[in-house]
Model the fold of this input.
Amino acid sequence: MTRDIDVPGPRADAFAPTDRSDPSYPKSLVDYCFQEFLVRDGQLLQVYEELLNIAYWIRGFAPHNVLEVGTRGSTFFLLSRLATGKKVAVDICDMRAKLHHFMFGHEWCFFQGNSQVLEMQQAVSSYCDRFDLIFIDGDHRYEGVKRDFENFRPLLSKRGVILFHGVDPDHVFKGREGGDAWRFWRDLDEGSKTLLCCSRSNGAIEVMGQRCHFGGFGIWSPT
Done:
């Protein structure tokens, strides 16, 4: 397992932000994430309208301390700029080279390893033991989503929520390996759940020839 804290990448800050008080700030972040070079590099696999709506929701929620389980770069960038406090990312692959481009000036930490084991939860909690927002976007198999949920749920703050990706019930990966997050979301029968799925999209990204139904966000609260 490796961990790295606040080491700047070759580009000090790749994003020239709109003023944070500007109402359009979340949109400017999402538009940046959808730049062609990030999409081409595989750092984004989202439906534009879904990510835009979630960005505005996160802006209003104003989380303090965020954790992303399964990171490719762009969404961690977005979460970090809409949150205060500590920012933490976990992935089985070493993503530091990509994350450094985004995270200069932030209090952050990256953990490489299996997100589904207790040792990873303990390592994360040694750096930050309470999160207002936990984004689960790693292993999309049913058992993988379930283990990530159970492993990191104890780290929620009193106002904390868990955000899931890939919960669209009409997901293009439905019935295929890696497309079972929607099933776990369906079976999650406690707390409160809010589902956001885009039925029509501008087609900013296509996956398997589809312009929508390859995502879906679920917001879960234990109360």
Notes: The chain has a mean pLDDT of 88.
